[in-house]
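Reproducibility note. Readers wishing to regenerate the assembly model reported in the main text can use the exact inputs given here. Chain order matters: entities are listed in the order in which they were concatenated for prediction.
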Amino acid sequence: MIETKALASSGIAVLSRCLNSLDWKGEVVKPTMLANGADDQHTGVEVSPMNSRRRQSGLNGTIKENLTAYAFLLLPMAVLTIFFFYPLLDTFHLSLTQFRGFGPRVFVGLNNYRKLAADPTFKLALKNTVTYAVIVVFGLVTFPLFLAILTNSRVQGTAAFRAMYYVPSITSMVIVGITFTMLYNQRGLLNYGLSLVGLSNFQPAWLANPDLALLAIMFVTIWHAAGYYMMIYFTGLKGLPSEVYEAALIDGATRWQCIRYLTIPLMRPYVTLVTVTAIIAAMKVFVEVKVMTGGGPAGATQVMNLYTYDNAFAYLKMGYAAAIGVILLLFILALSMLSLRILERNV
Amino acid sequence: MLARKKLMALAAVVLVVSTILSACAQPTPETVVEEVEVPVEVTKEVEVEVVVTATPVPAEPEKVTVSFMTMNLKDAFGDYIEGVIAAYETENPNIEIEWIDVSSNQKEWTMANLVAGTLPDVFDQQASRGLPELASMGALVDVEEYVTDAQMAEYFSSAWDGARLNGVAYGIPWYGGGRVFYWNKDLFQEAGLDPDVPPTTYTEALEIARMIKERTTAPYGYAFYISDYLGTPMLMSEGVQFVDSDGAVAVNSERTAEVFDRWKTAYDEGIIPPEVVVDYEHSDVYADVNWFASGQAGMLVRTGGGVIRNLPEGFNVGIGPAPEGTPYFFHYFAIPTQSEHPQEAVDFALYFTNWENQLEFCKLVAVMPSTRKTAADAYFDQEPTTPAQEAAGYMLSELNDDSLVISLIPGWGEMVGVLKEHWSKQMLGEETTEQALGEIEKAWNLIIASQ
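Running the prediction on these inputs yields the following C-alpha cells for the assembly.
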C-alpha cells in the first residue's frame, strides 16, 4: 500500500518536473534564459533571478491548475472521442468501402463517390435538399422575427399568443406529419377551407402533385419550427437597449422606422445564429419527408438524409450511405461557414 | 505537586495518543498468523466433502436458453404466446425460452442486432422484408439441416418454399395472410349493379369502378395507392412476373405493360384517387380503407382485419375472393448463424408452429395457417359468424401446395423502391409505360447483380 502510494507520488513528481519546463501556453521555457535574467521572450519583461524564483513558484501553481483542468477535461474528451470523433472518422473510412452491415468491409477506394456522381437519384436529392434549405431557411429567418416583434409589444395577452406559436415546436414531427398528410388530401380539410373562401376550382392533391409536394412539406417545417426560432429572437429583443429607441422616438421616428433601422440591425447576431442553425436543420431534413411522402411522388421530395437512410437500412449499402453522409456533411459545413462569414462581416 | 500534576497529565496524553495510534496501526504479525490458519480449517471441510461425493449425485443437464422474437404481438396475443412457451418449457425442462416482442420497423431492428451479434436464436421475419438480404449475406441457418422430411411435409410446400433462396430454406413458416375483395353493396346498387356479384378480374373491377364514379355520389370507384403492401400482391395477381425461375429480371413484359396501362387509364379518368402516387406506408397507412369506409370509393382489395375494424356501423359490406386469386405472404422463423443453439432453436420453432398451436392461434385471429393439418381442421368448416371469419374463409379456400406466395428476392427492398418511383412517374405521365418498364428493368438488373 505504502509502496503504491510512494510510486504514485514519485510518478506525479516526475510528471510535474517534466511539466515544470512548460510555460502556461505549453511552450518550452529555456531554464538558462530564466536563470540568467534574460528577457522573457513571451512577455518582454526582464526577469531577475528573484523574479525567476517567484515565477517558478507561480509556474508550479499554473501547472497544477492546468493539470486539474486537463483532468476535468479528460472525461468529456473521452466521451466526445468515443461518440463523436471516432464515428466521424469511421464514416469517412466506411465511405471508402463496400459493407452490407454484416461481414467484412471491402475497400473500394473512391468507387462510392464515383457512383454518386453518376447517380440521378442522388442528384435529384441534392437539388431538392438545396431548394428546400433555401426556402425553409428564408422562411425561418424572417417569419419568426416577425412573430417575435409582434409578440414583444406591450399589448395584454401577447404572452398567450407566444405560447400558442411555440406549441407546434414541442409537438412530435411524426404526429404533425401524419396530421398534415390527412389535411393535404384532395378531399381533406385544407381544400375544404379553400372552397369556403371561393377557391373551389383550386383543389390540388397536394402531396400527389410533384410540383407542390416539396412546397407542402416546406410549409410544415416552417409551421413546426417557427415557434422555436421566435423564442430565440424574443430573447434577443428583450436584451436590446431601450435608450436607443427612446432617442429615436424623441427624434420623431415611426414604429416601422424603429424596426427597420434599429431592431433589425441590432438583432443581426441573432439572425446569424438562426440562419446557421436553420441551415443545419434544413439540410438534415428527414422526418417530415419520411412520414409524409417517403420521397415521392416519383422522387419529387427525395432528399439527402432520406436517401442516406434508404441506402443504409433499406438497401443495406452502408458504404454508399456513408459517402452520401460525407457529402452532406461537407455541404452543411460549407454553407454554414459561408453564411457565418457573410453575416459576421455585416455585424 | 505541580510537577506531579504535569507528569500525570503527560502520562494521560501519552496513554490517549498511544491508544489512538494502536487503533490506526497495521495488523500485527500475530493477526496475520491467525489469518493464515484459516486455510487449515478449509482443508478439513474439503475432507468432509470427499466423503459426501462418495455417494454420486445425478448431474443435472445443462440448461439452454433460447431467445425468441415476435413482431408486435405481445399486447394482443401475449397470453397465447406465453402459454405455448410454458408448455414447451414443461416438455423440455432443460430449455428456457427468453421471449421478446418488438414493434414495427423490424428490418432496422434486425440489422442493428445482426451487426451487434445479438440476434435472437429464433426471430420472426416476413419473406419480403429483410429475410432475402439476411439470407444472401450468409447470416441465416439452412433450416433443412435440422428438420426431418416428415416434419417438413407437415407444411404446405408453397409456404415452405417461400423462404427458399437458391435451393436453401431460410425459415420455418408460421402464420400468413392473403387478399380479399371488399365492396360497398349500397354503391353497387346505386350504380345499377347486382350488389351480390363481385368482379372476378381486375379489368372487371375497374369497369365497375368507372360506373360507380359516373353513376353515384362517390368521387372514386376503386381505393388503392402504390406501395409494397398493396401494389406488389396486386401485380402478382394480375400475372406480372418480377424475376424468372433463374432469378433474371422478367418484369419488362407485355403483361406488365398491359397492367400498367390499365391503371394509368384509371388514374387519368379519376377512377382511383389522385393520391395513388403518395407513399402512405409511414403515415396514413389506412388511406385506402378510409376512402372505402367513408363511401368515397366503392371497392378495394386488402387482407382481413384492417378493413373490417375500420368500417362504420351499418356499413353494407360485401366480402369475396380477390380478383384473379390471392398471393399469400408468410411470417417465417429464421435462425441466425450467430446462434449457439441452432438445433434447439429449430426444435422450438417447429413446436411453436405445429398444427395444434397454429389452430389455437387461428381461433384467436383470422390468419392463414402454414400447416396442412391446421387448414384441414373442422374448425374452418363452420359457418363464419363474423366478417373477419368470412374473409379468412375466402383466403383459406385458395391455400394449397401450389399457391402463389411472396417469396425471397435478394435486393427486394431496393427493387420495390425503384418500382414505386417509375410506376408513379408512369401514372403522372412523366414517363411512358415503355420508358418506366425499361428503367425498372435496368435498375433491377444492377441491383440483382450487386447482391
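We highlight two features of this model. The beta strands of chain B are 64-71, 95-102, 122-126, 164-165, 168-169, 172-177, 180-184, 299-302, 317-321, 329-334. The interface with chain A takes residues 107-108, 111, 114-115, 133, 137-139, 219, 273-284, 287, 296, 411, 413-414, 417, 420-422, 424-425, 428, 430 of chain B (CB under 8 Å).
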